[in-house]
Amino acid sequence: MSSLTVAASSLSSSPLTQFASSSSNNSLNHPKLLLKILSNAKAQFPISFKYSSRPSVYRLPRLKPCAALDEKDPNGATPVLVEEGSSSNIVDEEVEKSVKVLKNAAKTRKVAAEEVLSALSVLEKAKLDPSKFFNTLGGTSSPGRTWMLIFTAEKKLAKGRYFPLTAIQRFDAAGKRIENGVFLGPIGSLTFEGRLSWKTRILAFIFERIRIKVGPLNPLEISLGQKEERELSNKDPFFIWFYVDEEIAVARGRSGGTAFWCQCRRVNT
């Protein structure tokens, strides 16, 4: 976009003042006077255009949330909605486009990392209403819902990549439980289980036990000694959630990295 530079002298003697004065006397009927005024204005108000090669930056309006689905969720979770003040519900175009990019990335894993990072940035800045996030993320009954990690990004979204392993997280909103696991097919799995708390858009958690499974053997369970029922805080690991619908979820971790998941079937170990 061009920037407009105006160099002006004193307002009292400017051609614009003369123009206003003459217009009040019906002088606009005199073409010669009008041409003289415009000529003086051009001399005293030179206009120059400066072009910049830097891309324009568009800021999203601060909206309260959303995405509507045709099918009802068996767990009774309510879809996330976007509201703008007291107006009717709308879906912000930039948010909608970004969500489509991430859903396509989850299905194909072929969307360029730069596009994924840009979509994550849009959703972080959109400031969507998180009031429905927790039930959408963890369902309304135990054992909750499971989500597969698709993509992880470094702090400030500097760069990112698709997560190469099968990593599944289970969030149980009703039971306030969390489970995080890496699954290697017939080789085995490693899972962490604990409890969680939710406040506004922050999900804090702490792991209480580890389960290690090798091949067909029964899993080995190890306690982490976190039995006390203390209240969780920001000193514990946490996620800050920016977007959650029935298919994908976007959050930033305590370390500053951002990731997104897609909902999947529960993995039986």
Structure description:
- The chain has an 8-stranded antiparallel beta barrel with strand order 3-5-6-7-8-10-11-12.
- The relative contact order is 0.13.
- Mean pLDDT is 75; it is low at 1-90.
- The radius of gyration is 29 Å and the shape is globular.
- The protein is an alpha+beta fold and 269 residues long.
- It starts with a strand and ends in a 5-residue tail after the last strand.
- It has helices spanning 15-24, 31-44, 93-108, 113-125, 133-138; strands spanning 3-6, 47-50, 145-153, 160-162, 166-172, 177-183, 188-199, 202-214, 220-223, 238-244, 248-253, 258-264.
Describe the structure concisely for a colleague.
The protein has 269 residues and is an alpha+beta fold. It contains 5 helices and 12 strands.
Strand and helix layout:
Blueprint: E1 3-6, H1 15-24, H2 31-44, E2 47-50, H3 93-108, H4 113-125, H5 133-138, E3 145-153, E4 160-162, E5 166-172, E6 177-183, E7 188-199, E8 202-214, E9 220-223, E10 238-244, E11 248-253, E12 258-264
Antiparallel strand pairs: 1-2, 3-4, 3-5, 3-12, 5-6, 6-7, 7-8, 8-9, 8-10, 10-11, 11-12
